[in-house]
Structures are given as structure tokens and as C-alpha cells.
Amino acid sequence: MLDSGEPRGTSGVVPHLFRAAILVAFGILAAQLWRLQIVEGPQLRQRADSNRVRVSQIPPPRGVIYDRNGTIVASNAPVFVVSIVPADLPAREEGAVYERLAEIIGGGSADIRRAVDRRKAEGDLFTPTSIKSNVPRDAALTIEQRHIELPGVLVSVESSRRYADGPLLAHILGYTGPISPTVLSPAKYKQKTEKEGYSINDRIGTAGLEDSFERYLRGKPGHRTYEVEASGRTVGDIRVEQPASGNNVALTIDVDLQRAVAGILREGLHQGNVGVAILSDVKTGEVLSLVSLPSYDNNIFTDDGRDDELAALLKDPEQPFFDRSISGQYPPGSTFKLVTGLGALQEGVAKRETIIESKGILYVPHDFYPNLRQPFPDWSPLGRLNFIQAIANSSNIYFFYLGGGYEPEKFTGLGVDRLAHYARMFGYGTRTKIDLPGESAGTVPDDAWKLQRVGEHWVKGDTYNMSIGQGYVEATPIQVHNMTVTIANGGTVLTPHVVKEVADSDGQLLVANKREESGALQVDPRHLQTLIDGMEAGFSGQLLRDYRIPNLRVAGKTGTAEYGQGVNALGGEQTHGWFTGFAPVQDPRIAVTVFVERGSSSRDAAPIAARILRHFFEIPENAPAPSATPLPSPLPRAPGPQNAGPAAPNVALATATPRQASPPMAPTAPPPSTKVVAPTSAPTARPSRPATAPPAATVAPTGVPKPPAMAAPATSVSQATPTRPTRAPTPAGVPKPPS
Amino acid sequence: MRLWRQFDYLFLLAIFGLVGYGLMMVHSATCAPDCDRFTPSSSSAFRQGLYALAGLAVMTLLTAVHYRAYRTLAYYGYGFSLLTLAAVLVVGRGEAEFGVRRWIPLGLFDVQPSELAKVFLVIALARFLSDRDGPLSLRRALASIGLLVPPLGLVFLQPDLGTSLSFVAIWFGMVAMAGARPLHLGLISLSAVLAAPGGWLLMREYQRARLLHFIETVANPESDPFGEGYNILQARISIGSGGMFGRGWLEGTQTQLDYLRVKQSDFIFSVLAEEMGFVGAMVLFGLLLLLLFRIARAAEKARDDFGRLAAFGVGCMLFFQSFVNLGTNLTLLPVTGVPLPLVSFGGSAMIAFCAAFGVVQSILIRSKRRAYTFTS
Question: Could you give the residue ranges of the DSSP H alpha helices within A369-457?
């Protein structure tokens, strides 16, 4: 067989078949190669690039927030953040990586797994999932050193928000939080991530200015395009686009003043911890201090490991996250008499000289049952009062006449519609548009409103209640404050601001909040002056005589707003205390408003306001006469020697008025009895001092329709605490000295 | 040496071309992260170069020896290869992950007996099938299965599906070449297909997974990007991103950044396609075609049946492995772990193929002369 040249059987054709098979096979291979490289080449090239090229966002440094004097109140501090890139975890050993990482940074590996699994479930394997922020430096370094054992684990330096003063400015500054569909609404989340370029690890302002000025503070994120190996190790940067830092915000708030005001407010609160103090420039609307107590430390949201504190704050019945200064809605009480009064003057319902006698209680025939006479009490039988005295002394009956009229005497009042008109003119019922989020609008009720909300028609009793700021009318402290600002500056309604300006990192001004008018009072300036005269008489009058400030003319109005129907520890009804005023009267500079939840106007709110004014005008508190003695002294400490004793309040107030003998009011002040001194008989004067029986008593045991929802929204917190802390019930209810 | 006039230099050129091309690609696949500097001691390409030199020596030696010697020694070699395959199952090493044993450690280097076993099988089959004159009877064809089964079984136990299939392919091609009737071949193929379920039962878990996975990926290439499908998906991306002219030698991102796995052996073609492009792949195809055609020519020119069958067996071995490897890279075939002859990194395969080509050359230079050779 050796030389048998001829192939056998099929073998002759086999080599040909073999060659043909080779050609066919390689033809198929070449065709597939063509398909992959030429037809699908571009897509596959893209796939290769998306394999190796990662883009990460470089978060921009958030804008710094300063107070009006350039003190930093919100800044950024570098923190180490540990994150995991799910795609870079070893396929079957991610558990081991979690264990090792948990050992270094603490916590459980299960938490890490959960975080990564959540990201995986979102189908995003390449964006680093942040596991822990605020990682200590040595832990961060350990992770870097053990890089090989921890594939997929990244350490980055990010900046974390620091609030220098924590609780002091928390309601104003707010805080930032992670972007997440659970924190934001799904729609907002979509908007933020898809339209505004937020990435999943970004933080976003979620409260306060951090929220309302987010678009200025945020800055523009940078992008780092870099190449990574299959193991996740970075090979190098391809392109780096630096972030642009956020714009800086300057507040109108003076942080030192804010601290002082907060301190004074806190010391002045006796009936719990809830109160508001606002101080602002009456000419520009700039808010110098805006304090709402209780507050919270807004660093809690960026510090790790303070979750327990946060949980406790969230459960706190006093709701420290609730900014009462702009969001709390309360009956404005007697402060609202300024609205009633100004409306009455302007509409000719009353004049400065109009005398109305308060016999202590006013019986008004019911709208539908004329035989039924409803009692509307004053807080004391104040006697015959003119307009100035009525404001100064806060007579309810006087303003019942002005607001609701009194048919038996043929006295026509403003009526609900005109009352509502003047209230709206001051900005009640609408937001002041202060540059903070979460402001409430309050309520200016009228017939239509009541019909819709309560299902009943408006009755005269409602007008009476509204005339003295009770009933359905509700206002936020900033609205009450803005009313005073408007009165003080001669009738211009200003938009209050807490932000003075916004500048970019080069100092270029982007926003300058100058004075911004949102309306004007359509009233005769003389009427405004009458109102101011009444307010000045009020502050220097009998009720507040202990808080007079030497060499400072203050115009102010107290308000005691009733809420709820219970009786407090002192036997009085449950009340909130208001004080709103401005100074100096001759050249108004600042307005101050103090609101004390479950407090009294004259014993709580007014003294706090007085101390704030003293602090602002740098008038030392070296104890004025009355404060030295624990028991009531009939003698006022005011410089005015002619000051009245407490005998007949109307008289006393009248004499108190021209304390500083201001030119415009001196001639107008003296009504009938200027010279009464009445040094004795304190008991007669003070049985009804509002310490225990506050003014504005609309909740008489009558058939007056009491709005069921009146106390509900704003006071729910207060009602959660059953009784007000007892205060030593001094027999005469002497106001506590301010210091 | 008049003998060497018959020496096929084109054949040699194809081998050199493939080996050189392979060295280039192995270097590219293994040099990261420091491709600028050539450091011989650590380079897989350097080791591959040494294997190639050893292979060249073996080829030269085997070319020089008359191929009758191989016929004489065929069964001894076959027996020896069975011993080594059995030894693998006892002392062998492999990828711990899959419980695979493929290599015998010899201190300085490891030997993969299954690669050498292919050559021994070719020679043993060539002898068995050429021992009788006349057309191959069915009985004898079936009897030759007796030579196939022992190495097939031993390799299957390793387990090494790719090499097992190579044995079958070699046997089938050689039986066809030996003159088996198409009817018989058809019947044998049919029974093989019918026996396939039995093969399924014999397969290891991972092999079944691979097969199932392949079927799945053909239906949907993106079905499992991070699991079993990772390698093949990355191979596809690598090849595709090469485009017409490639990303340039040492410039393939898939290769250099390690997205491509087992890239110096099973997926060396993906490296080549990424960096050298369609054009570079055509050059490789050209070299392989040249080599295959030269082997086919050698088979035709062989002066006897043994030579014809042995050369043809080598051709089948080369063709099958090339096609399976390329088909795997190109997502046409399931992953069976077959390296690309002469190009993939690996000493045993390199030396085995060089030995096989030495046998072919030995047959060629002792072939019947063509008329024109007399005139010289």
C-alpha cells in the first residue's frame, strides 16, 4: 500500500470537501466579523466607552450665608464620605467586602447591603451609593490603604453644611437634605433629577432659606470624566469640568441682635417655651431678628448619628420645627383694634374725640332673637373713654361700638365688610411674601367666608368678636408685625425681608432686596397719627407702666388672644399674649412684635418687648423704680411726675400720654381730667388687672356663636400641654419686672 | 539534503506569521499596566516566545525524521498519551473554581497532556485506518472508535469539553478521509445525535450552564451582563469596537483596562479584533487559510495512506480548533475553552501544533515528486 498513489473510497473528494468546508467556515466567520465590526461597530464602540468611561458629578460648594454684618452663619466643612459603586463589587464576594467595610466604619454589614441593593434595584450600577458620611479621618485612610481588599469602595471628600449658631437661626436658615423620592414628592423628585440636573447623592435645601434660595445657593455642579479599569480602579481623568460655587447670601438679620432677642424672649417666657419675637426696620422692611421658640439645631440633619435627637424633636409636643413667626396662625386679639380703630376714623364712624362709655358689659340684642340679649364684656368698667384712651386702655366695648355699632344708641359701626377691607389693606389674609418658605396667610373672615367654612351666615356677634381680633380672624405674628411697620412708616405696606442681598463668588450682586412696597393704606395721615398717639399712650400708660423706657418714646399695642374654652391655672381663660409696637415715636426706626403662646400681653409679651427695645437702643436696664419692690407699688417709675395712679384707668392713661411731651400729641392728649392724681386705693384700680383676668373676653357664657375651629390649627400644640406652669399668683397680679 | 527541496516554505511562513502575530497580541493582552516598558522576565509574550522556539526545534526534529517512524511508534505514543491523561486526573491542577484538572505541574512549567494527546490520536488513527487496503469497512470504522473512546473519556473527565470535541472532529475527518462511505458516516452521525442526551447527562454543571447560556445569549445577548454572559458580551464589545482598522496595538480599551477576560488564551482573537480591526482579522484569517490549504496540499501529495491520513488529521485538528475558537469569540458558538492554534498563549498547545506540523512537513518532503521536480 505504500506507494498506492490513488486515494480510496470517498477519500478522493474529501480534500476538496475539506477545502470547501474551510472556505465556507471562514466565510461565515468573516461575515459575522463584518456584522460585529462594521455594522454594529459604532454601537459596540459606544458600549466599550460606557464600560470604561465614568462621569461623576463634582458637587459645587454651596453658597455661604452671612448675617447683615458679614458674620458667617452657614458654611461648608469638608467631610469624608464612603460610597460603593455596585458595578465594581466582586461578583460573588460582595458580602465579604461589606463585612470588612462595616468593621472599619462601624454599623452592620446588613445596612450596607441594603443600601447597595436599593441602588441595584434602581438599575444604576455605576453611580456611587453613599454609605456613610462624616467618616473619621483615620477610618477613611484605612479604607484607602486596604483598597485591594475593598473593591468597589470609594472614599471621597465632600462638603457638609455647618450652621454656626444652630438653633438660633434654624427657622430662618432651614437645612439641606438628601434628594430622594421619599423625602421630596415623586413629581418634585423627577423635576429635580431630570430637569434640574440633580444627582441622586446631592443634597438639596429642604427648609428655610436653604429651600427658598436653593437656586442661588446650590451653584453649578462640575463633572469629572474619567477612565476606570474593570476592577473599578481609576486609571485617570479624561476631562474635568470644575464646579461653580453657589452664590453667597447676606441676611438682614443681625446675628448678635438675634442672639440677644432670643435670650430675652427665652428668659421672658414663663408659661412654657413657646414664643415669637420679631424686630425689623420700619423704613425698609428688613427683619433684624426673627425668633421662634422652641427651635432646633439644624446641624442635626448633616451630622451623622444624631437620629435619636431628631426623632425626639419630631415627637416634641411643642413642635420645634414649626416656625410660629411666619406659619403660626393665632387670633390677633386686641392688636387688631388698630385695624378697627383706623377704619373707624377713616370712615367717620368715630373721631379722636368720640366718647363711649364702658360700663363693663354690653348687652346686644341677638340678630335673630331680639329678646335674647347677648353680653359682650369689657375687661373692666373703664368708664367714659375717647379714642386715644380706648386704644391706650384697650377697651373692648369702645371697639365693639366702632366695629359692630350699637343700635340702642343709634351708633353705626363699620360692619364686617368695611372691617375686612381695612384688615386686608394692612395685609391680613394674605401672605406678607417674606422670603421664607411655609408662610401662612391667616384669615380675614366675612359673610361669604363664614358661609363656606362654617355653613352659617355672619351675625352681628361675629362682627363684635372680629372688632377686637377674636372670633374667626387669624393672623401670623409676621402679619401683626407688618401692620405695626405699616403704621410706623406712615402707611406703606412693605414686604418683609430676611435676605439683604445675594452675590456671586466674585462679589457681583445678583439680588439686592431694597425696600419693596406691596401696598399703601388709603387713609388720612391725621388718622394714622391719632392711632399712633393712642399706641404711645398705651405704652406709657397704666397697664404697662413698669416697662417704660427712659428717653425712648414707644408706641405699642398689647393683645390678649383667647383660645380654647378651658380655664387656666390662675382661673383666667387660656390666652396668648401679644405686644406689637415701634420706637422712637418721633422718628420711627424699628418695630418689635412679641407673641407668647399661653401667656399674657402685659405680663409676658410687653416686658419682653420692652427689654428688646432697651437692648436695641442700648438703654441699660438699671432697675427702674417699680421693679425693685416685689409688691405692687402704686407709683409709676416713669419720669413724668404727673403720672397717674391706678385709680381710674381712663384718667391715668390720659395723663400718662404726654410723658415725653411730643409736640404733635401734647395738645391733643388732655381730655377732661388731666390733673387727677388719685394716689390711693389700689384695690379699686386693680381688681381687674389683666394678670389673671385678661381683656378681650368674648367667650362669655352666652349664645354667641363661638367658632368651633377657632383655636384649632394654631394652638394645637399648646393644648397638648394640659396646664400652664403655675406662676405665683400675686394678689394684685403685678407684672413681673422685666429684668 | 535533497529532501529539503520539497520543504514547504509557504507553510513555514504561515506558521511564523501566526506565531509572530500571536506574540504581538499576547504581549498586548498581558502587558498592562505598563505597556511602554518591555520587561522580559514577567512577560507572557516572552515565555510564549520561548515556547515557540522550543516548538520550532521540535518541528525541525520531527521534520527530519522519516514519518515511517511515527507509524511504527504510533500505538506506543498513543499508550503514553493515555497514561499522561490518566495522570492528570490524579495529580493534575486546574481552575479551582470549576473543579477542573488540566495540567501536570513539572516544576518550571506545566504540561497540558490533552493538547499532546490530539497529535498522538491523529497518528494512532492514521495507522489504524491505513492498515487495511480497500475502502473502509463499517466494521473497521466502528472499530476505530475504540481508539477514540479512551482519550475522549479521560479528557471528558477532566472535564474538557472543547478538547473532547476536537477528538471527535479529528476522528470524523480522518474516517471520512480513510474512505468511509457517506451512508456509514451519516449513520454514525445520526447515532451520535441520538446519544446526545446521554452526553448531556455526562456533562458537568458548568458545561450545561454554558450550553444553556449560549442558547440564551443567542436569543438575547444582553440577558446576563454580569454573570455567565460577561466574558462573551465583553468579547463582542471588544470585537465590535475595533471597527475597520482597530484601535491600534496596545490601544484597545477593553483589553488594556481588563474588561475582556481570559484574553491571552481563549479570547485572544477579541484582543486582535479590537486592536487590529477587521483588516487585521482578515490577515489572521489569511494566514490560517494558507496554513490549512498547505496542509491539505500536503495530505494530497502524501505518498501513502498513513501520510495522507496523518496530514489530514492534523488539518482537521487545526481547522476544528480554529473554527471553534473564532466562532466562540464571534458569538456563533458556545464557550468550550478552545484556544486559537499558535496564537493563544500556551506552551503545550504551541509545542503540540509545532510537532504536528513537523509530522506534516516530514510527510511532505518525502512525498511523490511532481514531474517538474525531476528536471531540477
Answer: 387-393, 396-404, 415-425, 447-453
Q: A597-615 pLDDT, tens per residue? A: 888 888 888 899 999 999 9
CB pair distance less than 8 Å for B176 and A10: yes
Q: Assess A29–B contact: CB distance below 8 Å, yes or no.
A: yes
Residue B266 is placed in which grid cell? Answer: 481563549
Residue of A nearest to B231 (CA): A230
Mean pLDDT of A428-438: 92
Task: Establish if B38 belongs to a structural domain.
Answer: no
Count of the separate structural domains present in chain B: 1
Q: Calculate the average pLDDT of chain A.
A: 78
B334 is a domain residue: yes
Q: Tell the CATH superfamily of the A54-251 domain.
A: Penicillin-binding protein 2a (Domain 2) (3.90.1310.10)
A chain contacts of residue B136, beta-carbon cutoff 8 Å: 8-9
Annotation: CATH topology of A324-496+517-720:
Beta-lactamase (3.40.710)
**pLDDT per residue over A119-161, tens digit each?**
777 666 777 788 887 788 888 888 888 888 888 888 888 778 8
Does A235 reach chain B within 8 Å, measured CB to CB? yes
Domain that holds residue B172: 2-30+44-364
- Give B 135-164 residues with CB within 8 A of chain A: 135-136
Taking the CA of residue A36 and the nearest CA in chain B, the distance in Å comes to 5
Examine residue B375 and state whether it is found in any structural domain, yes or no.
no
pLDDT of residue B184: 82
H or E element that contains B254: helix B253-256
Instruction: Quote ipTM for the complex.
Output: 0.92
For an interface test with A, the pick among B233, B330, B369 (most A C-beta atoms closer than 10 Å) comes out as B330
B window 305-364, beta carbon within 8 A of A = 305, 308, 312, 315-316, 319, 323, 326-327, 330-332
Interchain CB distance below 8 Å, B278 and A33: yes
Chain-chain contact of B136 with A9 (C-beta, under 8 angstroms): yes
DSSP letters for B289-355: HHHHHHHHHHHHH-SSHHHHHHHHHHHHHHHHHHHHHHHHHTTSS-----PPTTTSS-HHHHHHHHH
CB of B204 less than 8 A from some CB of A = no
pLDDT digits (tens, 9 = 90+) for A321-353: 999 999 999 999 999 999 999 999 999 999 998
Sorted by where each begins, the domain ranges of chain A are: 54-251, 324-496+517-720
Determine contact, residues A47/B240, Cβ cutoff 8 Å: yes
Dihedral sign for Cα A656, A659, A664, A666, please: positive
| B35 within some domain | no
User: A-contacting residues of B 232-271, CB under 8 Å?
Assistant: 234, 236-244, 253-254, 257-259
Is residue A87's pLDDT more than 80?
Answer: no
Residue of A nearest to B311 (CA): A15
Sign of dihedral through CA atoms B322, B327, B328, B334? Answer: negative
Q: Which residue has the higher pLDDT, A112 or A266?
A: A266
